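In this section we walk through a basic example: taking a raw amino acid sequence and producing a predicted 3D structure, encoded as discrete structure tokens. The instruction is simple. Fold the sequence below.
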Amino acid sequence: MSTLNEVVELAARVPQLDDLLSLVLERTMRTVRAGIGSIMLLDHDRQVLRVVAARGLPDSVVGSAEVRVGEGIAGKVAQVGEPVLVEDIAADPRFGKPNELRYGSGAFMCLPVRVENRIIGVVNL
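The resulting token sequence is shown next.
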């Protein structure tokens, strides 16, 4: 609950959306002890998710990485609205090559972000 209170306080103090999303991601990652994370927002017209904040990933990912709704884990979470938890990404076929360092190792979760009843994006941790 204290993390939620922090986020509400941040929203009141941080006027720029990009800065706010970056701070929300940082606090969320700290709470769940994640080393890599991103927030992707949904472009409803194009039906793609775009990375708008990231930690532990190359800077080039922000603003350029996109996933179509319905494709991959993030795209399916945005489509269905249900979170996904993967206990070992090295053993999960939905994650590229086993030796690819992009995601690291261990567990992964993808959570839908909603405003009222509408999905506006996902958080990947």
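Looking at the output, two observations stand out. The mean pLDDT is 81. The radius of gyration is 14 Å. In the next section we compare this with other chains.
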